[in-house]
Write a structure and sequence with these properties.
KIB1-4 beta-propeller domain-containing protein, KIB1-4_b-propeller, single chain, 3 domains, globular, about 5% helix
Length: about 300
């Protein structure tokens, strides 16, 4: 269970905002597993007992897992959405001509097919809207993308997007953006079949394609993690490098003692189709990073 998660909810508009038909920026909160919330930046504490025992978070939603079924709860609006059972899977309609990344498919797609009878587990959940949720899932040894409508009976699973590993995913500018283990950035258009109303993938485009590389892990580097974040309208990849040293815990078992952490930021340059290093986010933004949900936050909230 996570020690804390970040939620962002929109506060009720003031009369001025209501007159101008605008909403105030989302207010960030830190949520603890015991149902305690701290609003930022004022550090006001309040309780949501029904939020105890959450699994993770995504935007304004707390994610709960019970009896192989995920549910989404907004502790502020009290809205609850239930996702299909993890055992209810069906392949999504995706003819191969929708995919324009031939090199990536030939060079990176595993030869092993998906086992639709394997137990499904969710690696990353993204709530696109109250009508669409997406997930990076494991089916046996493979990773792929699954889509569903809250309240529906089944998850729709992609066969064409199967990989040995998928790193992160986010909803950005009306599309799903997926980062794979080679730092390729895929953009996925999700649509609806006009005949039967089922979800379908209408296009997959590789916007940034990197060549296969071998990541060298020098002495002292124990783990590298990449996540996607939107900031100032740009799509960023945040690389976190964890440094550790071998340590003996006096029981004969070797472990790794954390000794440092390093962050590097890259921006998706869609004109040159590459990741470009970024040295500053500006003085008005900071980053919250976690495996389940990452977000760029305006630090000006702390002075308001």
């Amino acid at each position: 269970m996570p020690p804390l998660e970040l939620l962002c909810h929109t506060a009720l508009p003031t009369s001025t905002c209501a007159t101008q038909h605008c909403l105030p920026p989302p207010v960030p909160c830190l949520a603890f597993p015991d149902g305690t919330f701290f609003s930022l930046p004022h550090r006001e504490a309040f309780q949501f007992p029904e939020s105890m025992g959450y699994h993770s978070s995504c935007g304004e939603w707390l994610v709960f897992l019970c009896d192989v079924t995920y549910s989404l709860k907004n502790p502020f609006s009290k809205v609850t959405l239930t996702l299909p059972k993890l055992s209810c899977l069906c392949p999504i309609e995706e003819p191969e001509e929708i995919v324009n990344l031939t090199v990536t498919l030939e060079g990176k797609m595993p030869q092993e097919s998906l086992d639709m009878d394997a137990e499904m587990s969710v690696y990353k959940l993204v709530v696109c809207s109250s009508l669409l949720a997406a997930a990076i899932i494991n089916l046996g040894p493979m990773y792929t993308i699954a889509l569903c409508r809250p309240g529906a009976d089944s998850w729709f699973v992609s066969r064409l997007l199967r990989r040995d590993q998928l790193i992160d995913m986010m909803f950005y500018r009306g599309k799903l953006f997926v980062l794979d283990e080679f730092n390729n950035l895929l953009a996925i258009d999700v649509g609806e079949d006009n005949d039967n109303g089922k979800l379908r993938i209408s296009q997959v485009e590789c916007l940034i394609e990197t060549r296969s590389i071998t990541i060298f892990m020098p002495n002292g580097v124990s783990y590298i993690n990449d996540v996607l974040v939107e900031s100032h309208g740009a799509l960023l990849m945040i690389r976190t490098t964890f440094f550790g040293m071998p340590s003996d815990d006096n029981t004969g078992c070797m472990s790794t003692k954390p000794v440092g952490i390093q962050f590097k930021v890259f921006e998706a340059d869609f004109h040159s189709s590459r990741w470009v290093g970024v040295t500053s986010l500006g003085d008005d933004h900071t980053l919250y990073i976690s495996q389940s949900y990452s977000r760029s936050l305006c630090v000006c909230l702390s002075t308001s």
